Structure formats: structure tokens, C-alpha cells
């Protein structure tokens, strides 16, 4: 038994030695980025898909579970491909130019985003909207830090909140088709379904009656 373990220990030592080689660091970082992208994508998408599917989607249990699995796989795969592509292109640019500059990150991410997330589907759309909202906040903060716009005298967050909620409810009421489908479903549940009931059962217990009474 002890002898059978020697090749495995030798293989592990060789793998660990390889991981310490600085000349392979960029390639290894891309591989680990692929791994981390896959794991993170699954962690983020699985619970979200689980909740949204069972809250808003109809169909059999098998169909719901299949939908959750497909959404999780797509998000996990795309994020893994993107991180691998981004880090690979970043390393290639740094090697070609001899040093890393800020534009390298922008260009590598642009190419990776185009290749991996360019397909207009619900999962990619949700991810881009998630990023876009945070980018707008970050750019506003950066503009203040760089002195392009003056530091607000008061916290602008309440005004931003008012404008965001005012805009989204106006769009929902009068231009609903412009909103993303899952947001439409959420807002229909909150603002339209709350106006319909027949008795105490679908007033407090259920959202909608399942019988034909």
C-alpha cells in the first residue's frame, strides 16, 4: 500500500513545484481564474434562479429544476470563459508591451465581453444590468475624486433614490415592454396583483386563487 502511494506523492510534489514556477504564473492565473469564475457563477446564479423560478415560473417540478440547472450552468460557464479570456489577453498585452498599463484591462475586458457575453439572452442581460448600475455609481464617485464635478454639500443618495423609483414606476405603468421580463414579473406581483382579490384566502393567504370560483 505504501509503495502504491509513492507515485501519487511524487505527482503532487511535481504539481506543487510547477505552481511555484514564476514563468508559468500568467498561464496558471488564467486557469485558476477559469476555476474561480465557474465556482462563483454557480454560487451566484443557483440561489437566484431557484428563488425566481419557484416564485414566478409555472411548470412541473422537473421543468423548474431543469431551468435552474441550465441557468446555473450558463452563468458559471460564461463567467469562467470570460475570466480566462480576460486574464489571457491581459498577460499577452503585458508581455508584448513589456509592462502593464490601464488600457490593457479595458481592451482585454472589451474583447472578452464581446466574445463571451455578446449573446442577448436573459442571463447576460441581467449580468450587464447588474454591472451597469454599479458602474454608474463608481463613475460618479470617480468624477468627484478627480475634481470633474464638485463634492456634493449633502448626500445625493435620497435624490438618486427618488429619481430611480419615480422612473421605474413610470416605465412600468406606461412603457412596460421596455423593462426586463423578471422586473416586469416582480412589479406585476407587487403593484397589480395587490389590487385583485375575491375573499380572505387570496387577500392574505394566497396571491391568486387557483379554483374557478
Automatic annotation (TrEMBL):
Protein name, per record: PXMP4 protein
PANTHER family linked to this entry: PEROXISOMAL MEMBRANE PROTEIN 4
InterPro entries cross-referenced by the UniProt entry: Pmp4
A Pfam cross-reference name: Tim17
Domain of life: Eukaryota
Gene Ontology annotations for the cellular component aspect, listed alphabetically: peroxisomal membrane
